[in-house]
Design a protein that fits this description.
Chains A, B, C: One of its GO terms (biological process) is ammonium homeostasis. Three copies of one chain form a homotrimer. By secondary structure, chain A is mainly α. The first copy, chain A, has a single domain (about 10-250, about 375-455), classed as Orthogonal Bundle (Ammonium transporter fold), CATH 1.10.3430. In chain A, about 65% of the residues lie in helices and about 5% in strands. Chain A has 16 helices and five strands. In chain A, a hairpin with a 2-residue loop joins strand 4 and strand 5. In chain A, helix 1 (about 10-30) runs parallel beside helix 4, helix 3 (about 55-80) runs parallel beside helix 5 and helix 12 (about 305-335) crosses helix 13. The radius of gyration of chain A is 23 Å and the shape is globular. Chain A starts with 9 loop residues before the first helix and ends with a strand. At the A-B interface, helix 1, strand 1, helix 2, helix 3 and helix 4 of A face helix 3, helix 8, helix 9, helix 12 and helix 15 of B.
């Protein structure tokens, strides 16, 4: 198929239209919340807080910045492993995330921060907007290299909307706890992306096979993404937890789970290679599965050894997925999953949901203290209608709701993206920056001689 | 012209002399401020603060670290886009910033933290020193590739001095608000750098034309710089704002402006290419203009939609500047602006100054509250001499003062740097690391065979 | 010697065994400390603290994340300078650190956080575990390229154990202050690593000489490591200091020392090259020596000028070490120090210990205040048995204890690592990722033509 990939008017118009709409909607709806508003002394007295330090900003801002790095550098560079798709990986991720966070501020705002006709935003909204976009970055991994930037903007528009609805159902209707987003971000994002790539199946993708592999330095760029995701994941899972012990505990649990995950991912990577060699794909991805899988339970009393066990299992499952499941999905189910998000976000996301449900179901006042239990699960202390087993059931229901939303939404959005109007690349031009980017000509490589600063071209 | 580029004695002597002078001046002048001094209990009681948490450190340190990353990794890597100038971009930026922050601690200290014969430093001084050096990094962008490290040290010495004088005039005499430095950092830095490069005009620069373009991986290195600047800019604009709501608001406004800026920069980049392709130069630079342009107003009640509008405009203006204005400046005005700082810092800096003046002129007690207004603009609450329109006028005056300081200072410093004694490169050797660095010989590239770990050289 | 480098069963079994043991030990011993435990209201009342903000988390978490980045990105990328060892540098560092932090939580926990049969962990334990692993990363630098990942895991197991014993002797028995670890981390880590590489001496290492040099882009990757270490070092040295002024002061001192160190490292690098050119090795390493050398004294009243002097000296000494000492150690003492850790961590670590001893010996109540002195050095205020000269002597003793532990421990661990069972590479295969990693074939480099997105292979 010879689609027209010249985006000259379509991409600018899409961007400008979206941005104008955002400006108008922000003008109508978005204001600062009291912690960010200048009515400082008066409001402070109302809120009965004595110090500037009680401003939510100081509880959450460092975590926000870490999450911000994960979305833009973490996801962006993680996907630069392809030899000739680095501009697009980093650049399109940048574009879709910049659009997505604005749209998410509105969508999540209407559901969670709407008051007297206004969305009142503060640092927690910024974190949640980044989280929401994180699920789009996950889905991007499945379709990486096979879509145009317009398709990505369209997908972001719909996915952020669906994310917000799903999140509202889980957090507000089912009253599920999911601070690190195993269900809302990873399970939803992964199965949404897999469904979209299934709809967009390209039977002749082998035509761009030679560009689907990395080169040496592109793998090192990808490790920048991996490491910033890995290092800052404790901030991700603790960023919107309750102040104090919950944030503290979420960081510890995530740290433990991720550490264990590295060892089992390395073990499996070596064990599954005929000469025992390690595979960069596993190191770049499977080492992160432990962070995904404690997303729900990290703030609960999972215990450090519980976190280690979760990480242990996920390193193994995720690496096995890369070796056996991804090829199977592609050849049998026609699901072309460029980055293997099923192994990094899909299965670990579901595991995370289950771990969260089990941990919640086991919560008791012996472990949490009487007040601690009410505080941790957000119910009135003497509410006799709350029980941990009920919480566990609702948590489990959250997994299924997320999966259903992802599948239905993914089918609809996939069909929209299949329309031949978005400037998508032909099969033989996939995974190539040169379709959408000015790329430098690199025929002539100039070589410096230490003794002679004048350069002469080497033979091409 | 055949200058002598052997720096063997000149560079070491310059570095050692400057550093010895700094040691002596620090010995005479610099001490810890009370929050960093060990006289802890006694002073704490004097200061009447009950908790260690009230230490300024906890309000500012996370922002400081983000700013620090912007100066060293952000600016350093942003300039690695040139194919053979990565060592110098990162390395010289490292050198000038390491010198500049020490000299800035002194210069800014004398103006703002001088007490009883001593400069009392704390974390806010560290941030301000980084800010000051930020303006030097901006100016470096204009002359990148065409100067020696000695010239950079000399320029830093003078520019930090002028920066501090200009900052004193604006902040202390005109009582202007400029927390994110649209005027003091960006406008001043950009027009200073442009004036210097105008004085240093090289008519035969085309002789090193082939090295003025990027290679594939150098563009990815540059994206590391772009993204760390983009992500941490909310910290930059909020780092020295008042505690509480002002810091909080500055971060939100900057986040919004930057997000909008990405979409319009992408739109224009595509619209201005004959096949609609994106240009890495715009993605690396124009996406940041929104951060520059809310530098003054971010801590004010600019409102989220106001921030979006500022970002919207700057993404467009900055990209247009790269496409039309930079070539014009070079061919008609003989201003060779290597990184296009006029589009990233110059125009957006002036826009930022104007936005700040207008926002200040519109400040009212309805929006800020009575006490909030006095707090936000630092005047006694019942001072009837203060009016928002007056504040707006002084803000506007700050732009012109900064421009005048930049132009006059830039001419003087440019003339000094033109002296043929600093080891500057000849026109045909510009943009080449090999002049000032040991660079690895890369004739023989060793290629690994997955099946055979023994290496054999490929043909050169 | 033709060792078997196929790790297929050995590496997986090692990883899985270690991780299972860690899970069991965590299950038996590790629990949350009160600040991270959900028994929130009850415990909060016991602790008599009124606000969530008093949670240790908010004092230490931002510093923890900075330290975390230093260990994984800082050390990992610093070692990517070799042309064909980037996967191993980043990947093996990732593996050993992920194992090491878990084992360190246990070892350090038994010594310092053991209570009623449990190790109670919180954010400070996470920082200390990262610190402990930092010393392993240091030692890794000496043997980089010459060992298998199994050897690294074995070394980590022993080194973390010895580190914890040494740290216990210094901090708990000698009551030494060493917040930034000049002695416990750098001196111990460096001389341990140097002893191990001395035992593992490879007389025929010249056979892989061609891979011991960098290529252009590998040096830029290494600068990512350098800069993140440099920028976050103020957090490293202040992360576990006392709340308030001590943390604040440690950050300021480290900032100053590092800045001065850059200028003198550059000066010496240029002065020692026959044409005055800079050497990337010095910029990547010697610029960091100032951070190492204020590790002990940064939290003391070293004064900003004192910090500058320390940085000044270390930039010189470290660069001289790279030029003269490293070749001497290799040719005369048969110590093959791949990254030159002796110059970055060894000598500066000892200097740091001495500076700390002298600064402590000079501590007086005039400078610290009466209560400040007791607080800074952790003794009862009216304890007449404490004197600053005694503190200084104990500090000095700490250097010798660390050296002795490093040498004895290094010999034992070196002998263990010399056993021919760990899959170490042959001399001609050192510094080559292809032994332990799947590496992409790079015979055919595809070149994009801006005008023609279809790719054609260039000649190999």
């Amino acid at each position: 198929m010879a689609w027209n990939t010249d985006l000259r008017w379509r991409l600018p118009l899409t961007c400008l239209l979206l941005q104008v709409a955002l400006v108008v909607l922000f003008g109508v709806f978005v204001r600062y919340n009291p912690d960010a508003d200048a009515h400082w002394v008066e409001d402070k007295q109302h809120a009965n807080s004595s110090s500037d330090l009680d401003n939510e900003f100081y509880y959450r801002y460092p975590s926000f910045q870490d999450v911000h790095v994960m979305i833009f550098v973490g996801f962006g560079f993680l996907m630069t492993f392809l030899q000739r798709y680095g501009y697009s990986s980093v650049g399109f991720n940048f574009l879709l995330a910049a659009f997505g966070i604005q749209w998410a501020l509105l969508m999540q705002g209407w559901f969670h921060s709407y008051q007297d006709g206004y969305i009142l935003v503060g640092v927690e909204n910024l974190i949640n907007a980044d989280f929401c976009v994180g699920s789009v970055c996950v889905a991007f991994g499945a379709i990486l290299g096979k879509v145009s930037p317009i398709q990505l903007l369209v997908m972001t528009l719909f996915q952020v909307t669906l994310f917000s609805v799903n999140e509202f159902i889980l957090l507000s209707l089912l009253e599920v706890k999911d601070a690190g987003g195993s269900m809302t971000i990873h399970t939803f994002g992964a199965y949404f992306g897999l469904t979209v790539t299934w709809i967009l199946y390209r039977p002749n993708l082998y035509q761009s096979k030679e560009r689907q592999s990395p080169v040496y330095h592109s793998d090192l760029f990808a490790m920048i993404g991996t490491l910033f995701l890995w290092m800052y994941w404790p901030s991700f899972n603790s960023a919107v937890s309750n102040h104090g012990d919950a944030q503290h505990r979420a960081a510890i649990n995530t740290y433990c789970s991720l550490a264990a995950c590295v060892l089992t991912a390395v073990a499996l990577s070596s064990a599954l290679h005929k000469k025992g060699k390690l595979d960069m794909v596993h190191i770049q991805n499977a080492t992160l599965a432990g962070g995904v899988a404690v997303g729900t339970a990290a703030e609960m009393m999972l215990m450090p050894y519980g976190s280690l066990i979760v990480g242990f299992i996920c390193g193994i499952v995720s690496t096995l997925g890369f070796v056996y499941l991804t090829p199977f999905l592609e050849s049998k189910l026609r699901i072309q999953d460029t980055c293997g998000i099923h192994n990094l976000h899909g299965i670990p996301g579901i595991i995370g949901g289950i771990v969260g449900a089990v941990t919640a179901a086991c919560a008791s006042s012996e472990v949490y203290g009487q007040q601690g239990l009410a505080h941790a699960f957000d119910f009135e202390q003497h509410n006799i209608n709350w029980s941990s087993s009920m919480q566990g059931s609702f948590q489990a229901a959250g997994i299924f709701v997320s999966l259903a939303m992802a599948l239905v939404g993914g089918i609809i959005v996939g069909i929209i993206l299949k329309l031949p109007i978005w400037g998508q690349p032909a099969d033989e031009n996939c995974f190539d920056d040169a379709i959408y980017w000015e790329v430098p000509e690199e025929h002539t490589i100039y070589v410096s001689h230490p003794e002679d600063p004048n350069l002469k071209p080497s033979e091409p």
